[in-house]
Amino acid sequence: MKADYKNWVPKGMLWSFIGATVAAGVLLVFSVVQGLKTLSIVALVAFLVLTLVNLWLFSLYKRFSYDGKRQLSRVIVEGIASYVKVPDGSRCLDVGCGSGALTIACAKKNPKASFLGVDVWGLTYASYSKELCEHNAEAEGVKNTTFQQGNAVKLDFPDETFDAVVSNYVYHNVIGKNKQDLLLESLRVLKKGGTFALHDIMSFGRFGNMQNFVERLKKEGYKDVRLIDTTDGLFMSKKEAFLMELSGSSLLVGTK
Asked: Most buried among 65, 104, 145, 207, using CB within 10 Å?
């Protein structure tokens, strides 16, 4: 049995753009044959743009693949997990666990702690599911994980439930919600003295002023709070982050 963490670039998306590109190509040939000059120009532009998008998406797919040479997904997940060191018997939460990769990676590094992964799963990443997470945990031989439905907007847990809270590229996907409020909701369920490692595209446009947010946490009593740029060689280069639209990726770590 082999773990299947899927790819952050869904195959369905790739096939959709390939189909659109083929359709634009057919339209281009038709318009040229029929002598429809204006339509030919429109079809040509569409075909060229879609071709470039396909090349970009395929490049992303290769970089994120767990089976590829770059394996960026694995680098990021294991990088985040390296910041999670909890005492035996600890109970920890992964917000937006997807295919269970981060939950499992943290559980491997802390075999005497328990890790719960929660996610809404659903249509956006239809290939991800609770069953897939459980399959991956079994394939990895990890027995200290569980998975259930859960929403980052409102976590169904009392205050100070967990000894550690982690997350990876989740909050920026939540439409119509203040991203700093989402971070605070995750930190709400963290115990006093617990640790956190939250990774996302924390650009100003998405998250607002994160340096001010760090100072706010410090004033509220959080310890060792750091905002670590993960595009400066830690997980990826700035050029790579730019090409993948991940510029601004940062890891927020600290202790409550």
From this structure: 104
